[in-house]
Amino acid sequence: MDPSAAALDPSAATDPGVGASSAALPSADSTLGALLLGTCFGFMLYGLMLHQAFRYYHLYPTDRFHLKWLVTIIVIMESFHMSLWAIASYEYLVANYLDPVYPALTHWFVQTTVPFTGSAILVCQIFYAARVYYFGPKWQYRATVYVVIVLMLSFVGWTAVAAVKSYQATTSAEFAHSTWLISVGYGHAVVSDIILAGALIYILHQNRTGIKKTDTVLDTLIVYTINTGLLTTIFGILVFVFGLTNPDNLVYAGLSIPSVKLYSNSVLAMLNSRRSLSAKMMGGGFDPGSISLGNYRPSAAASHSRTGGITTVTRTQTVTVDVNGWPGKISSHVGSDVDEEKGTHTAFDSRNLKRSTEGYDEDELGFAR
To answer: What SS3 class is residue 367?
Structure first.
């Protein structure tokens, strides 16, 4: 009789006729099946993440140093995270597929996924918290970020305790008593996601200027925020629920694999979207490269002037951005000249980009081509 089977089922130690096969083990569908499906979907999203990272390095070679490091850290952590689940799939489904006891024991490659899952989520949430902090300079927005920071620290604490418990456990049944720690941690992550997404949507909506091109960019950002926040929130809630209701299987673990990849893909998609957003802002006539959305400051003003019999009505839109590492302003002048004597109406639309440095303003490039 296998001693490890006796450890799983006390009756096996007293009844010689009871073998390892009779030990109370979860079904293969909810353990190995969940692991297989989670790993497959995880690798799909991992491949998409690598593609996003390649596009980022190709499109933004002069991007800010801390953003490059952010992308590099995400790629390294996600690669290590998927390597651990690849090892788990091989060990469970190939190397030890005839051993019914092996899935019931804890192993280092599964235990190590707990801290790496939490770390990957934390890095992505720091990025979103920084966006809200710099995007909304008002005290209430920053107070919201401080609340999220407390939630993130709590998430780190629960994840750290869960990681320690996973290393201390020798069987899956023993660790099943501690999966609620993972659920509580994911609950904090979900609340953080909802707060950050809600704050960003509110800030973007408040910054609407009434000018079509600016509002189109803001609407696109709102849609991005809703879509990415909705996906990560749904998976986070599923992990939270299954970790509490079904702690004796691996359904929650299988769901956590694509959940982490959704976080990383949402960050990289947002970074890579800056070029298309800037093209929308400029009407397709200029591609400024790297624009930091954290420094995106739209404003608008209207003016009237009269010369002779011609009245000029102008709406000026100014957006403070960060283009390829230097500060600048994008201005759009949209208006019309009305000649009251001739009864004619002439519309105009001009744009320019000015680079602001100490001591001078330099016209860098006209957008109308």
So the answer is: coil
13-46 burial, b if ≥16 CB within 10 A, otherwise e? Answer: eeeeebebeebebbeeebbbebbbbbbebbbebb
The DSSP H or E segment spanning 227 is helix 212-245
Residues shown for the chain? 369
- Read off the pLDDT band of 91 (50, 70, 90): very high
Residue 350: which H helix or E strand, with range?
strand 344-357
Residue 60 phi, psi (nearest 5): -125, 60
CA triplet 145, 150, 156: central angle to 5 degrees? 120
Q: Are 296 and 203 in contact (CB under 8 A)?
A: no
Q: How far apart are CA 352 and CA 330, in angstroms?
A: 6
| Buried-state track 298-332, b at ≥16 Cβ within 10 A, e below 16 | bebeeeeeeeeeeeeebbebbbebbbbeeebbbeb
Number of helices followed by number of strands (H, E) in the chain = 12, 5
Question: CB atoms < 10 A from the CB of 108, how many?
Answer: 12
- The first and second tokens of residue 34, run together, are 């969940």
Cα dihedral: 280, 285, 288, 293 (round 10): -20
Assigned token pair, 268: 């990289």
Token pair 């953003």 in the structure block, residue = 67
**Does 108 score more than 80 pLDDT?**
yes
> pLDDT at position 238, please?
95
Please name the helix (run of DSSP H) or strand (run of DSSP E) that holds residue 300, with its range, or none: strand 297-307
Token pair listed for 215: 């509002």
pTM: 0.70
- Taking each helix axis from N to C terminus, what angle separates 179-206 and 251-272, rounded to the nearest 10 degrees? 30
The amino acid sitting at 2 is D
What CA–CA distance (Å, rounded) separates 155 from 233?
Answer: 15
